Amino acid sequence: MRGGLAVLLVAALASACAQDTTGVRGAPGQQPLEAPPARALDTYASRLRAAQTARVAAAERWNLRQVPLTAPPPPAEKPRITAREGFEVDGQEDLPPVFTTVPTEERIVFLTIDDGAEKDPAFLRMMSELRIPYTVFLTDDEIKDDYGYFEEMQTRGVTLNSHTLSHPYLPALSYEQQRREICGMQEVIEKRYGKRPALFRPPFGNYNRDTLRAARSCGVRYAPIWNEEVYVDHWEYREWDQDLHPGDIVLTHFRGRDDWDGTMTDMVRRFLDRITAAGYAVARLEDYL
After folding, report:
1. Mean pLDDT of 122-150
2. Any alpha helices (H) in 113-259, and if so which ranges?
3. pLDDT confidence of residue 9
4. C-alpha torsion sign, points 114, 78, 85, 175
């Protein structure tokens, strides 16, 4: 970081020396249109150092083994998302794709959290202090006792997506029943949080053609599921190699001591320690779609 800042500072100083020196000034009291490049860069470098210092302190405060890695900037050109091979349905080309991994060569993964049963304030603080992005898929039956918790989550930059009204096994339902579950949750999120989601995750990862048809009719564009699932005490893997891969979507759930031998923050600690040790950073799923 120090070496990179030095290079940027040299470039900024050279730019400052090359500025127009005619001495022409604006009207009395008029401010320059731009701050001196070297000073602006020094301010930027100071902010970077302060942010990193805060991140180091947060990692220590939350008992992480290492400071989480920072994801690279998202690509200017988004990757083409298609249904995972073997996960297609008839007429797939016109329906939201079901996928488990985003095409990328970057060592990044995406953290997604389902349902909304546990509402742990410490989890919100931890993710904000560590600056870890994540995406949630909510079920109305689990969040209606405290819509405000997820409103606070949204103010922290988290996208709220649909996971149906009541978390049924969708393939057992008719098209109209599935549509009520999916569109109903779209409407709850739009009414409560102001924006209709573009992402939908079928409960249990189970779906059929009617599921995706219904989702499309409700405004859904993507149906991401997952390649790994993290619990408070172990991981589960979809692939035969039992390992992480660039662009993998990781699933977990809003759970606490009633269901786990630990808390949401314990789960996040396990997740971050695992991926950081493997050289991965957490990126924001929506930035790649």
Report:
1. 98
2. 121-130, 140-143, 147-155, 175-193, 209-217
3. 36
4. positive
For residues 148 and 188, give the distance between their C-alpha atoms in angstroms, rounded to a whole number: 13
Q: Say if residue 6's pLDDT is above 50.
A: no
28 Cβ partners below 8 Å, 6+ apart? none
Question: Quick one: which of 94, 99, 54, 62 has its CA closest to 79?
Answer: 99
How far is residue 15's CA from residue 147's CA, in Å, rounded to a whole number?
51
Query: pTM of the entire structure?
Result: 0.85
**Residue 18 confidence (pLDDT) above 90:** no
Give the Cα separation of 236 and 243 in Å (integer): 9
Q: Is residue 233 classed as helix, strand or coil in its secondary structure?
A: coil
Per-residue DSSP letter, 75: P
Residue 156 CB contacts under 8 Å (≥ 6 apart), including other chains: 124, 127, 128
d(CA 285, CA 110): 6
Q: pLDDT class for 44, splitting at 50, 70, 90?
A: confident
Cα torsion 149, 153, 159, 164 to 10°: value is -20
Q: Decide: 232 and 270 in contact? Cβ < 8 Å.
A: yes
pLDDT tens, position by position, 204-218:
999 999 999 999 999
Count Cα atoms within 13 angstroms, Cβ side, for 118: 21
- Predicted confidence band at 36 (pLDDT cuts at 50, 70, 90)? low
DSSP state at residue 222: B
User: What is the residue type of 149?
Assistant: Y
**E strand or H helix at 162, and its extent?**
strand 159-162
